[in-house]
Structures are given as C-alpha cells and as structure tokens.
C-alpha cells in the first residue's frame, strides 16, 4: 500500500480528493491535515508517508512552511487554484502540480508519475528521491492571469513571448497582452526549453511563433504576435540561440 497524506484546509475539497483517490486500491490515506501548525506537528510525530497531496494556500500560511520546517521524505503532488507557486513547488520534492478543479485524468497521470519513481522493491530513500526529482524537468503548461476582477487560464502554447516592462512581466498571445506574477528568471527555469528561449534581458520567445530572423546588422526576431518593441538577440546569446533553433 502507498501511505498517503492529504493537506487541504477546505473540507469539501479534502473529501472530494479522498473519494477520487479511493479509485486507486493501492493508495491508503492515513491522515488529512488542515493547517500549517497541524502539519508541522503531524510530520514531527509520525512516520512520513510515501505520497503527499497538498494544497498550497492554507488558513494559517502556505504549506511550503511545513516542509521548510520539517523536510519531507515523501513525494509531493501540489493541488491548488493558483499557478504562480510552480517554481517553489518543484524545489520542495514536488513531482506534479495539479490545478483545481482536479480532473480524473490529471490525477491518474500524477499517480502514475509517482509510481514510475518507485522501484519494484519500494526501497527508495530520501536521498534517492531528491536525485530522481532533480532529473524530472518541471515545465509550466498554463499561466493564471487576472483581468479586472476575473481570472483566466492561458496555455503556454498560446504565448508567443514573455517580456518585461516597468518591472512587470507580460505575456503576449494572439488575443492580447496580459500581466503575470512571474519574473523572467523564474520563467527560464520552468518553461519548456525546446519551445522557449531568452534572447535578451527583456524577452523570452516561443519558437512556434517565429516568422523571420534577421541576421544583419544584428540578430532580430519577428514573431507572429509581439509588442511594438523590436526583439533582438543579445550578442552573448547568439550562439546558444542558433543551437536552440536546431535542437
């Protein structure tokens, strides 16, 4: 059996996830935790489970606070309505990141991913876990943006570029420009490397939207959808840029 803990401060969401997990006979939910304080106490006094499903925003803080105080020996699958915590999640033993409302197929995929990390003899230790997670490339598949009082999910495959302006990072789609909560440095770590490349300090571009590349007198990229500003490739990035184009 796979000993599993649910960390979720909303009782209906906790019950729903437990019901969904009941479809996996190999999973045994051994505890349900509702707060940071309760989580710190439980992980201090109990044997760590193999698998943890954890919401991020709890009533008394972020669940990250639990694992920063009590380093976990298990794998974490984060469940949340917000995408801006992706980078930090993958630094804390996370193997997946599910956006609410959780879909059956996404949950099944996350459980299968967890099982792929566990050898047949189930002897993986905490050091092995960290090495396995290091090998797992975490990629951002969708971004949550705010439009007035509304939230919208934008798939990264729809984004032609990310760019910074006046200390805010925006994303560009065919439809319009949206502000985001990321920095370009964070995005470099979590975007799919084969699709996205940082051409300079201001722009990260998506190869799927490249229309033309000028090489004289300097490298300049034209995208299908882009802000008014010219997109140039920094001199020190030209070689890496050309390598990326054919990778």
Automatic annotation (TrEMBL):
PTM sites of type 4-aspartylphosphate: 55
HTH LytTR-type domain: residues covered: 143-247
Response regulatory domain: residues covered: 3-115
Keyword match S-adenosyl-L-methionine: no
Listed name of the protein: DNA-binding LytR/AlgR family response regulator
Classification via SMART domains: LytTR, REC
SUPFAM superfamilies per UniProt: CheY-like (SSF52172)
Organism taxonomic ancestry: Bacteria, Pseudomonadati, Bacteroidota, Flavobacteriia, Flavobacteriales
InterPro entries: CheY-like_superfamily (IPR011006), LytR-like (IPR046947), LytTR_DNA-bd_dom (IPR007492), Sig_transdc_resp-reg_receiver (IPR001789)
Coiled-coil stretches noted in the UniProt entry, renumbered to this chain: none
UniProt-recorded Gene Ontology molecular function terms: DNA binding; phosphorelay response regulator activity
Organism encoding this protein: Chryseobacterium rhizosphaerae
One Pfam family of this chain: LytTR
PANTHER family the UniProt entry points to: STAGE 0 SPORULATION PROTEIN A HOMOLOG, TRANSCRIPTIONAL REGULATOR-RELATED
Protein keywords: DNA-binding, Phosphoprotein
């Amino acid at each position: 059996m796979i000993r599993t803990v649910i960390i979720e401060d909303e009782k209906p969401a906790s019950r729903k996830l437990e019901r969904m997990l009941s479809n996996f006979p190999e999973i045994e939910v051994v505890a349900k935790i509702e707060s940071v304080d309760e989580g710190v106490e439980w992980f201090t006094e109990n044997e760590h489970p193999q698998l943890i499903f954890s919401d991020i925003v709890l009533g008394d803080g972020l669940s990250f606070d639990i694992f920063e105080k009590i380093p976990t020996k298990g794998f974490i699958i984060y469940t949340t309505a917000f995408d801006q915590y992706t980078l930090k999640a993958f630094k804390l033993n996370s193997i997946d990141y599910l956006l609410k409302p959780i879909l059956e197929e996404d949950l099944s995929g996350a459980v299968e991913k967890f099982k792929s990390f566990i050898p047949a003899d189930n002897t993986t230790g905490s050091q092995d876990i960290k090495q396995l997670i290091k090998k797992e490339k975490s990629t951002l598949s969708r971004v949550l943006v705010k439009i007035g009082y509304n939230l919208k999910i934008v798939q990264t495959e729809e984004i032609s570029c990310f760019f910074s302006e006046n200390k805010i990072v925006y994303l560009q789609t065919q439809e319009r420009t949206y502000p985001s909560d990321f920095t370009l440095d964070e995005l470099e770590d979590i975007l799919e490397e084969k699709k996205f490349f940082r051409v300079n300090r201001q722009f990260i571009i998506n190869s799927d939207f490249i229309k033309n590349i000028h090489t004289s007198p300097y490298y300049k990229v034209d995208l299908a959808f882009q802000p008014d500003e010219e997109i140039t490739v920094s001199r020190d990035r030209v070689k890496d840029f050309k390598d990326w184009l054919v990778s």
